Input
Amino acid sequence: MTNHSYFPTWRCNTGFTIEFSEYQYSWSPDTSSQRKYVRESTYLEGAKRIYHGDLAKWFTVEEFKEFCIEENYAAAMKEYNEKMKENICPECGARLVKRQTYNGVFWGCSNYSKTKCSYTLNIPSVDVR
Output
């Protein structure tokens, strides 16, 4: 894997983050070679859960190994991309709405106030000069 962090509740916004303990994380870009490595090696032994940044979703180790099979990965990402084209929350199916805070602009789930669905997707800022 690429990096380790000793900060609690840290996770990456892209790629995936593997939680080993309360303070130890490992993160990696989401590439087919990295997915194959975590699926086929013993690296995930002792891992608690895995966070996929693009999907904004936590997986158990077993779920993640199943997800990393290329056919399953391709289908999941296709479904995710279709939902994002329609501005549909991939977690609960509600509409995504554009929100603005002092930290910037992002897409957020419209069900937040009802169900506390906390899915968000950052909108990159554009530097106009």
